[in-house]
Every structure is written in C-alpha cells, then in structure tokens.
C-alpha cells in the first residue's frame, strides 16, 4: 500500500514538472519575434523548443505508462519520446553549429550529411516496437531496453560532443571578445544535457533532463533578446552599440602588416528623399543601403552597422577589404545596381570616407574623426561637381 502511494506521489510530481516545462516551452516559443536573431537562428531555436515540448509531453505519457505498466500506451509514446529527444539534440547541435559555422550550416549538403545519423536513429526507433532493437515492453507491461538502446542514445549525443569540441576549438583560436563571450555561452548551453545525463545515472527517475534543458532554452532566449537590443530594427544591421565592441577588438589587433580599414558613409540628400517621397520611402532607401553594406561585410568578413540616422560604417582587414578607394567605388556600384533592381523613382548616392588603422593603439574616436573628415571632403566634392 505504501509502495503504491509512493508511486502515485512520484507520478503526480513528475507529471506536474512535465506540464510546467511544456507550458514554459510554449510560452518561450510564442515570444520569439522576427527581429530576434537571424532567420536561421529563429527557425532552429523554434524547432529545438518544439522538439523539447514534444519530448516533455511524450515523457509524461511514458511515465504514466511505466508506473501503471500499460504497454499499449508505453510502446507508441516511448517511440515518439525517443524520436523527440533525438530531434531535440540535433536542433541543439544545429543552433550551436550555426553560431560557430554559419556558412556550413546554411549549406544544403552540410545539412543533408549532418542529418544522416538522425534519420538512422528515427528508423531504428520507429521499428523498435516490432524488432525490439531499442526498447520493448515485457509481458507484464514493464519497459525494457533493447540491445541497441545505448548505441542509439550515444549516437544522438555525439552531435553534442562534436559541437562542444567545435566551440572549444573556436574559443581557443579567437581573439574577439564578443566571440569568446558567445563561445562561453554556447559551452554552457551544451553542458546542460551532459550534466543531466550524469545526474540521471546517479539519481534515476528524476525529470532532470526536462528541467536542465529548459534552463538552456531560457539562456538562449535571453541571448536572442540581448542580440535584439544590438540590432537596428529598420535595417537588420548591427547598431552603433553593437559594433563598438567589435571595432575595439579589430583596432586592438591592427598592425602595419595587417591594418584595419574603417569606412564611414552617409546618404547624400537623404532629407530630400524624406521630404519629397515620405518617410516610408526614406526607410526603404536606408534598407537598400544597409543591404549593400551587409553583402560586402559578408563577403569580406568585415563588420557593418548603421551608425545612426543615414550614416553607416564598415570595418575590415586590409587583406580582405583591399584598396579602400577601390572598395568605395565598389560600394557605389553595388548601390547603383540595387537602385536599378528596385526600380526606384529617385537615385541614392553615398559619400564615404575612410581611415587606415595600422597600430593597435589606434582609438575608435580617432578612426571615426579621420573617416568623418574624408567623408565631408567627398561630400563637398560631389556638391561642387
């Protein structure tokens, strides 16, 4: 009798924890907005949260079935639970890999190859009610692990092991303060499932994975919110606050052998566009200029940001940016092409100045003053012409 009461209390507590975790997951997923992170970040984070919710819900059914030894409920929900946790781990891996290797994770080939182990896991788990390879229920309705249970679970967690060491290598190699901060965040995010596994071995039957995974979700959600603060809502580029730290890191690593080029541009006669065509059209013009800066930044590994109003900045190594005068001509050409593609009823032109930073002692204020001085010289020349 006492054993039954203890089991009932355990089941009730377990179900309450699962319900609370599921509701929290749904709440967080609903709060992810389009201005939080990149499209891939939002998409992957949402899929991770949805897989987590599926895992928590199916786990509740599994707990109910196991305590009451009801195989008819346990078999289908255990299969769904194992698939959900595998998808959850894969999306965990995808999010971390995107943060450390965005180009790779956006590659269709990379995504296809990375999903092969996941597909194999799903096939094994889905067939297990018939093969008993991963799990099965005995004649009394008790859950039993199959011969490949540990292998399947270990294969899923290899995603996290790979991502962990990938982040660790990046942490060792990077000189950027912001990248180091991101690496520490991702490492803490990855440590939660490992900690959950250890605790589960030492103290079984506690919903520790559910709770620690939720903590990881909250950490990433907060990080997305902080990133939102540093993103210019209109253009999608980083804002002045966001780029200052990156620029400080870049200038701190500048040298005569590896100088940093700092560009500053503003849109010519932007007020006339606003006055004549309206502020909505002015916003459109700024987004077009931002698209040019974003494209060049992606191709050269530079940092781009909206500095304020109609001013934009770009900073990158001379080795990748090239001759600054040639880069300015390229900016103008890219902008002219974008204006033609948009079939605008007006033209958009920029005046651009730059500063060559060849010493780690170069201050950001000095770079902006020099670039600003050249910018207004270029603007005077345009007006004179």
Strand order of the largest sheet: 3-5-6-4-7
The general outline is elongated
What is the CATH architecture assignment of the largest domain?
Up-down Bundle
Q: Tell me the major beta sheet.
A: 5 strands, mixed
Name of the level-1 CATH class of the largest domain: Mainly Alpha
- Element-by-element helix/strand order: HHHHHEEHHHEHEHHEEHHEH
Helix content: over 70%
Radius of gyration, rounded?
A: 27 Å
The structural class is alpha+beta
Give the tally of β-strands: 7
Strand percent estimate: 5-15%
CATH topology of the largest domain: Rhopdopsin 7-helix transmembrane proteins
Q: CATH H level of the largest domain: which superfamily?
A: Rhodopsin 7-helix transmembrane proteins
- Count of helix runs: 14
Low-confidence stretches: none
Total domains, how many?
2
Terminal-residue CA separation: 96 Å
Q: Give the overall pLDDT as a whole number.
A: 86
Question: What descriptors fit this protein?
Answer:
elongated; five-stranded mixed β-sheet; 10% strand; Rhopdopsin 7-helix transmembrane proteins; 385 residues; two-stranded antiparallel ribbon; Alpha-Beta Plaits; alpha+beta
What would your notes on this structure say?
The protein has helices at 2-31, 39-68, 71-100, 102-105, 108-131, 149-173, 177-202, 208-229, 240-252, 270-277, 279-300, 318-321, 324-342, 364-384, and strands at residues 135-137, 143-145, 238-239, 260-267, 303-308, 311-317, 350-357. It has 385 residues and is α+β, with helices and mostly antiparallel strands. A hairpin with a 2-residue loop joins β5 and β6.
């Amino acid at each position: 009798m006492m054993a039954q009461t203890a089991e009932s209390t355990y089941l009730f507590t377990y179900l309450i924890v699962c319900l609370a975790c599921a509701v929290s997951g749904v709440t967080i997923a609903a709060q992810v907005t389009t201005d939080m992170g990149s499209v891939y970040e939002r998409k992957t984070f949402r899929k991770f949260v949805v897989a987590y919710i599926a895992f928590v819900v199916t786990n509740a059914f599994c707990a109910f079935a196991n305590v009451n030894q009801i195989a008819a409920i346990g078999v289908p929900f255990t299969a769904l639970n194992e698939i959900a946790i595998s998808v959850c781990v894969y999306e965990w891996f995808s999010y971390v890999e995107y943060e450390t290797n965005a180009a790779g994770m956006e590659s269709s080939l990379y995504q296809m190859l990375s999903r092969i182990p996941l597909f194999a896991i799903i096939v094994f788990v889905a067939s297990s009610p018939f093969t008993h390879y991963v799990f099965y229920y005995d004649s009394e309705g008790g859950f039993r692990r199959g011969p490949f249970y540990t292998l399947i679970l270990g294969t899923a967690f290899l995603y996290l092991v790979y991502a962990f060491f990938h982040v660790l290598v990046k942490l060792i190699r990077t000189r950027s303060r912001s990248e180091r901060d991101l690496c520490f965040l991702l490492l803490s995010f990855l440590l939660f499932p490992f900690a959950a596994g250890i605790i589960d071995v030492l103290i079984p039957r506690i919903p520790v994975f559910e709770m620690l995974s939720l903590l990881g979700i909250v950490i990433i959600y907060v990080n997305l919110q902080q990133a939102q603060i540093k993103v210019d809502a209109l253009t999608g580029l980083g804002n002045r606050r966001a780029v200052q730290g990156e620029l400080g890191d870049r200038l701190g690593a500048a040298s005569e052998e590896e100088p940093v080029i700092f560009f500053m541009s503003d849109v010519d006669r932007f007020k006339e566009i606003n006055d004549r065509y309206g502020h909505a059209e002015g916003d459109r013009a700024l987004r077009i200029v931002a698209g040019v800066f974003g494209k060049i930044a992606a191709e050269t590994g530079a940092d781009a940001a909206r500095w304020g109003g109609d001013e934009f900045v770009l900073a990158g190594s001379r080795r990748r940016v090239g001759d600054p005068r040639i880069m300015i001509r390229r900016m103008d050409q890219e902008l002219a092409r974008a204006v033609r593609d948009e079939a605008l009823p007006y033209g958009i032109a920029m005046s651009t100045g730059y500063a060559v930073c060849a010493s780690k002692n170069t201050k950001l204020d000095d770079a902006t003053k020099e670039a600003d001085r050249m910018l207004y010289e270029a603007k005077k020349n345009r007006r004179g012409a």
